[in-house]
């Protein structure tokens, strides 16, 4: 099934929103002692583990601007560049 334009973006936004609300509720529910322990544990963890635990960085302002531009019809799309990249990804280098 082909997703409509913006469907993946909105699911990503919703995931980020849920992640952030979960962090806020978790910190409020567990208190400062647990938050301090978590902070020290994440400080000793590898950067990759810390990034995995925090999730991908999401610039909500940038997403909102792109969504607004798409909705108003002002988002620039270079169809040739998209087609070239699709072909490049689909075909092995030797063909």
Explain this structure.
It is a single chain. The protein has one domain (7-90). The radius of gyration is 20 Å and the shape is flat. It is built from 4 helices and no strands. By secondary structure, it is mostly helical.
Layout: helices, strands, pairs:
Blueprint: H1 7-44, H2 47-54, H3 60-72, H4 79-90
Nearest-integer average pLDDT: 73
- Order of SSEs, N→C? HHHH
- The quaternary organization reads as single chain
Tell me the Rg in angstroms. 20 Å
Strand content: under 5%
Largest sheet: none
Count of runs of 4 or more consecutive helical residues: 4
Measure the end-to-end span: 28 Å
Number of strand segments: 0
What is the count of distinct domains? 1
Uncertain regions spanning at least 5 consecutive residues: none
- Derived from helix and strand composition plus strand pairing, the structural class reads mainly alpha
Shape: flat
Estimate percent helicity.
over 70%
């Amino acid at each position: 099934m082909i997703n409509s334009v913006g469907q993946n973006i909105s699911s990503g936004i919703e995931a980020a929103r849920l992640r952030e609300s979960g962090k806020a509720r978790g910190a409020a529910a567990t208190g400062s002692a647990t938050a301090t322990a978590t902070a020290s544990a994440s400080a000793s963890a590898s950067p990759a583990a810390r990034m995995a635990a925090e999730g991908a960085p999401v610039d909500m302002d940038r997403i909102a601007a792109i969504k607004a531009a798409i909705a108003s019809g002002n988002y620039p799309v270079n169809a040739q560049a998209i087609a070239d990249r699709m072909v490049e990804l689909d075909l092995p280098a030797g063909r």
